[in-house]
Structures are given as structure tokens and as C-alpha cells.
User: Fold this.
Amino acid sequence: MSLALWPATASEQAAHIDGLFTGLLVVTGLILLLVAGLLLLFCIRYRRGTQAKRGDLPEFLRRDVELGWTAATLFLALFLFWWAGTLELRASMAPPEALEIHVVAKQWMWKARHPNGAREIDALHVPRGEAVRLVMTSQDVIHSFYVPAFRVKQDVLPGRFTEMWFRPTRTGEYRLFCAEFCGTQHSRMGGMVTVMEPEDYASWAAAQPQEQDLPGEGEALFTALGCAGCHAPASAVHAPVLQGVYGRMVHLADGRTVRADQAYLRDSILQPQRDVVAGYAPIMPSFAGLVDEADLQRLVAYLQSLRGEAAR
Ligand code: CUA
Assistant:
């Protein structure tokens, strides 16, 4: 049950976020009442013309009591920090088995691609009860993917992948908005998220036209761009072998260690000089300008598909 003022509660996170919101409201409300009450009390007690003096301040203002409430406030603040922090942490880490859907934003529409190649525009079908991870990018300006019923919102940026995940808990249709001003049609940029029972989602996805073999197209591009010339295991050029790289921790020349996720792979194609792998010469040229957003998705999908071949 939720207050009529609030949007529907249709994801696992939504209930937690509403709980935090209510908690913050109650805590801050109580503090407001306490401070306003004391203010009123002092205004009356120490008003002009009364006999009360600073010497007879109430008992509870003595030093030990003051220390006590300083500590209480500190612990209260730390508790709120912990509460919000753990929620934020959980919201930022998608479960590994999450269904991965790619979203591309452009002025002024949302395009989605499902794992089996099914595509849709200004609509998103998702299965109830399953974790859904969105990997998003923009073709032009900054947009923001916002589904109030799920209590999730994430900026979508050109030249970068951003991620977000949720687990829908109730079937139905929920509004999708763009929450970042992106041009004249910004207010109309939106759509519907449809939460279906998993069986219904499976049959829906199977019924969509299956046009694309993204990893296959990525492999063709990988060859056409000449990537294989250096990155093939047998190549004379000393370049990192990409089999099984996806998801692995990579040590960089500057001492950092990063996970080779989609964003890292994408950046490595566009800005190879930025995150040079330890032990390798910074000789790879940038492919920015040579590949577009769709090509990057194909290439990254291909690299991801090499995951299982690490053992060979
Ligand atoms: Cu897209 Cu506002």
C-alpha cells in the first residue's frame, strides 16, 4: 500500500527507498519540532522584563547533557548515513544473473535492445521478479532514464555507458520519462515500461523480429578494422589478448586495477592511451571517429562473447 501522493510501488528498491524517505521525514520532522519547541520555550521564558537570568538556565543545558545530545546527534547522523549508504550500494550493484538490456537515447526517443535481439522504441518490456540491468548510452545529448514507479533514475550520456538495475515486483504499465532537459521535445520524450509475468515476457521476446546477431557483426567489424592484426594470440605485435578479458580485473600501467566491463572496453577503443594495460606499450591508435555508437555496441558485444573462450 502506498500513499496516493506517491507513484505506484513496482520494484524491490521502491519499497526500500520509500522507507528511507519516510525515515528521513520522521527524523527531520522530530528535530524540527524539538528545535521550534525550544525556541518558543526560550522566547517566553527569557522575554524582556522577566526575572529569569542566564545563571538559572535549565538543568538540561549543563555540560554533560550537552555532550550527551551532541553524541546522540552524531550517532543519529551516522545511522542515517549507513542506512542511505547501504541502499545506495545495493542500488549500484546489479546481481550477476541480471537480464541485460541495452538502451540508446536520442532526441527524442528511447531505443531498447533485448538479449535475444528484440528491439523496441519508447517501450520496455521486462519480466516480473527478475533483475534487469540497463546498459545505456546516448547518441546526442544528455538524457536521463526515469521510472518513478521503480524509484530509479540514471543519466544517459553521449560517449559513455551508464548502468542501472531494478527488479520489478508488480505486473502492469508504468510511465518512463526523460528527466534531463534535452531540447524542445524533452517533455514528450518518454514511453511505457510493461512488467509481464516471466512466461509472458519470454513469449513476447520470442515473437519479436530477430534481426541481429550483434556479436557476429562485431566480429566482422573486428576483422574489418584490423583489430585482429594486433590482438590475435599469434600476432607479432605485443598486444593484450582479448579472449576472456570481459569481466576480468586488469592491472594498468599507472598502478590502478580496473574491471574490464563494457564501459572499460568501450573507453579502450575510443581512448586507448588513457588506460594502458601494465606491461604493454601505448601504441594502439584511437578509433574515435572511425566507429559510431552502433559499431561500439557490436564490438563490445563481440568482446563479451569471447568470455567463455578463456580456457582454451
Ligand atoms: Cu531526453 Cu530530456
User: Anything to note?
Assistant: The helical segments are 12-45, 63-92, 198-207, 214-224, 227-231, 262-270, 293-305.
